[in-house]
Design a protein that fits this description.
Elements (H helix, E strand, L loop, with lengths): L5 H18 L12 H10 L5 H14 L3 H6 L2 H8 L5 H17 L8 H5 L6 H5 L1
Helix pairs in contact: 2-3, 5-6
């Protein structure tokens, strides 16, 4: 493993950010009108699934479930139907469970602390950090 000092680490971080500003994707559907809900759904969909595959599913999902309340209020079978083709159906079930918790416990707003977010079903450190 590469051992970097603070100066080297800062330099490297700046290089990555500069590269992103020049070449990074900024027009993906979940980046336009960015909300915590869109980021969360996209992060879950993108787990073990390519971006090009996720885009049409994400767009259809957002049409049917435009916010966390709509997702929480939906029948689980409908959520799973929208997930058909993405695989790993536990992801869809966890989305639905989490949406209900956020609706009922947090008045439809994502919790503010990392620990509270990570306590939600299907959300680990990577997804919570997004």
């Amino acid at each position: 493993m590469l051992d970097l000092n603070k100066e080297q680490s800062n330099w490297f971080s700046n290089q990555v950010v500069d590269w992103y500003h020049l070449h990074g994707r900024k027009t993906l559907p979940w980046q336009l009108g960015k909300t915590p809900y869109k980021v969360w759904v996209s992060e879950v969909m993108l787990q073990q699934t390519q971006v090009v595959t996720v885009i049409p599913y994400f767009e259809k999902f957002m049409q049917s479930f435009p916010d966390i309340i709509a997702l929480a209020d939906a029948d689980e079978d409908l959520v799973l139907h929208h997930w058909t083709g993405l695989g790993y159906y536990a992801r869809a079930r966890n989305l639905h469970k989490t949406a209900k918790i956020v609706r009922d416990k947090y008045q439809g707003e994502f919790p503010q602390t990392l620990d509270e977010v990570m306590d939600l079903p299907g959300i680990g450190r990577s997804t919570a950090g997004a």
